[in-house]
Each structure stands twice: as structure tokens, then as C-alpha cells.
Structure prediction request, 549 residues.
Amino acid sequence: MTDKETVDPEVLIALAENERKTLIERTPQWLLVLLFGAAVVTVWHMAVTYSGISQLVLPGPYQVLQDLIFTLNNLFTGGYVAHATWITLVEVVFGFLLASAIGLTLGMIIGATTLGRKAIMPYVVAINTMPKVAFAPLFVAWFGFGIESKIMMAAFISFFPVTINTAAGLAATDSNMSMLFKSLEANRWQTLIKLQMPYATPYIFAGLKLAAVWSVIGVVVGEYMGGGEGLGELVRVAASQLRVGRVFAQILLLSLMGLSVFGFVTLLERYFVRWRR
Amino acid sequence: MHDVRSDGDAILRLDNVNKHYRRARSGQADIIHAAKDVSFELERGQMASLVGASGCGKSTVLKMIAGLIPPTGGEITLRGEALTGPNEHIGIMFQQPTLLPWRSVMENVLLPIEIREGRNAANAARERATQLLEMAGLAEFANAVPAELSGGMAQRAAICRMLVTQPEILLLDEPFGALDEFTREQMNVEFERICRSREATAIIVTHSIQEAIFLADSVFVMSPRPGRIVKRIDIDLPRPRTPDMITGNRFNEYVREIHDLLFGSGEGASHD
Prediction:
């Protein structure tokens, strides 16, 4: 690059030929995302307009937009949507925190002890194969119609990925590093705290991200079953009144909530796993 | 630093050391004899290398001295006392630098002290660690993380970590095997200098005949199945060793001798 060799024009032509990209490759991604979204909305609009399908079954994009504006307006002016969002957010956050605590503890017992791996692991796997949402009525019976039953449901649904990833991360420790710690006569606790846990953090965060999304699912299932004042209850009521546009708008709020918790965990991950390139 | 009465005598002694493995995943008793009747002595300040093909049991011998795996027969003694496990007087390093990626170079070097004596002792040893890093040419990288180091630099940091507790015996398991040829030769020169300046007693396991000769006072040639020492060759080359020795006649005679022991004299040695 730094030498002053004159470049043959034919080389430049050949280079340009090698570097040629297709139209799609040259288009920025945001534009493609927007165009695809616009195409879907157009098809949706045409389908609703020309198929004669009832607004009660599937509203058009314009109707949904109006419902969305109404819902957001209600949220930001402190209406009932704001109250419901707050309740659900509290349930999601506490459910997620509980799932993280249970998952980390159980994962450490399974990943760091032979007894845990041999005796407890099979039960955790067995619980995971159960359709966990089927337990929702029981949680209502056990913990009532308040936020407690939703928090427990969220924790129950989302502790598993944290458990498994913590256990797998602890077991994945580099064997050479384990040998180093052994040669330094490190005790079990030192090996866990100074080697295995830091080594497992990328795995643990992968589990926490899954738990962040799953705890929203757990809360919504809990609210469908046990009522209350959250967004899930709003969705249930709106659907029973066949206000499909409202349902869409409220589900969008729930998605944004899941995305926020997910984003927060990702920020934590950036901080704790910044050594990993 | 320690009470060494047996000055001049053997500091490390292996007496008919044996290691058998049970081969995993086999129905019947399938026992591998990985090391057979290995006996040798090292004097204080002596550098030895174990050379042999992969699978000849040289790493097994090293791990037994490090106390990482127990022998199935024989005895290893350090200054007359039987070794039964990992020991603060013995430092080991591996083919991979095995630096903890979430710790800075300085924190990695201080790790052995932190584990053995606690965080305060580790902080108190910062100055010693800094001197080691300076000696290894890593002073500016004390606060860097391992991901910012090249392969050779990471291995130099691993040397510092091994030296920080001032062990009497250094064990190196193919320490520079993962490095490219140029870096490797440079590391050999540096390592020889470091060992000489501290009169270190060291055992280097390697499959490179050149490296074995370059670093050692005595080369132990091992042959596989069962792994045993077939010959001890004392290297009579002046110290410090310099890269130009590698092309010298004396050096090449040693290479030929070891090569013939490892591959048999019939299969024409091809290094001149």
C-alpha cells in the first residue's frame, strides 16, 4: 500500500469487478426493513379491504394505528393503561429476579457438586419437559388473585434456562485452567469464585436473557388465569369485547416490556463480560 | 530462602516412578503403562529436558512431579521429602498460557499469591510482580487484558506468573509449542536467560529436539509404550546459549544422536 508502484489500469478494472456488489448488498439494512414492513402493511390493507372480512375479526392497519395512538395516549397521560402497565412491569421484574435467584442457586448446586449433578439434575430436566403453563390454575389457587401468583408463575416458567446455563457454564471450565488452579492448591470455594463463576458468566447471561423474555410470558399466563389489574387482564377483556385493534396495541406494549428487560440484561452483560471480545 | 542443607546433592529425585492408566470406555481391564521405572535426579540449578514423541509419557512424568496425578509406583522426593500433591515449591506452566481473560496481566501474575496467601499478600507482592514483568518486557502491559497480548507475550506473562512465588523447581509442559518458529526461538533465548539469572532448577517437556538441547544441561530421551527414559545425554555447550549455536557442529551431533534414538539410526537423519 505504501510503495509507489504504478497500478496497471487493467488491475483496477479487475479489482472493481471483484468488488462488485448486488443491489440488495448495497442497500442499507434500515431501508430494506422499512420497505418489507411497508409491503406487509399494504398486503394487509388490501386483504382487509377487498376480502370483505369483518373489522371485528381482523381490523385494517389504519384501525390498529388509531387503537395504538389511543393506548399510548392513555399510557402517557396516566390513564388505566398506565396503571396496568405498572402492575405488569412490577410482576415481570420480580418474577425475573426470583427466577434468576432460584436459577443461579440451583445451577451452582448442579454445576459445582457431583451430588447435585447426579441427584437433582434429572428432576430439573423432568420439570422442564412439563407444559408449565398448565400449572397456572394451581398457582392462582396457591397464591391468590394478587400479584404474588403472577410473580410465582413467571419465576416458575423462567428459572429453567438460568439453571441449565449456570450448570453448563460451571461445567465448561477450561481444563488447563482447572489444572492450573489445582497446581496452586486452590480450594473448592476459590476455584468456584475465582475461576468457574467468571468463566460461566457468558453462559449465565444467555440464560438470563431467555428468562427475561419468558417471565413476560409467565406473567401474561398468570393474568389470563388469575385476573388482576395488569396488561394481560386488559388484553383478555378487549378480546372478549372483540376489540382486536386494542388487543394488538396492548400486546405491543407487552413486547416492549420484554424488550426493555432483555435490553437491561444485555447492558449488564456488556459490563460484566467486557473481557470477552 | 529455604533451609537447603543438601547443597550440591539432588534437590529432586525420581525413584522407579511408574504410572498406569485404565483406558476409559472398555469392557475388560485395559491398562496402559504410561511411565515405566522412571528414575533421575536433578541438582540445584540444573536444567533438564524430557524429549520424545507425543504419547511417550513425558507429560505424565511432569504432571506426577507437579502432584497433579499420583504415581502408581515408585517415589518422588523433593529435598528428601516425599511429594504427595501440588506443592508451593514447584511451579508449572502449560502449552497454553491459561491466563484468566477477565483479569489484567498484573492480576494474572499475582494469582498464585492471591490463592495461596490471600489478597493482601498479593497486593504486597505488586512490586515483585512489576519487576518480573519488566524483565519479561511486559511492563507497559501490566494493566492490559490477555486478549490484547500476542501469543508470545501471553506466554511470557505465564512465565512471570510461574516465577512470582519463587518456586525452587520449574516445570514446563511444551511451553512454546503453540508459538510460531520465530517467536519460539526468541522465547527459548529469553527463557534460558531468565533461568540462568535465577539459577532455576527446571524440567522442560518438549517434542522439539532443538529446543530440548538448547535449553538443557541434560536431555532425557523417552520412548513410548511403555514410556521410559532410554538415555540421558549431558549437553556440553557453554552458557549463555545463543541462536548461532543451533547451526554449530556440536549442536548438530547432539541432534543426530537424539534423532537416532527416537527414530532409529536406519531411517537416514536428514539435517545436513
Q: What stands out?
A: The two ends of chain A are 28 Å apart (CA to CA). Chain A touches chain B through 19 residues (CB under 8 Å).
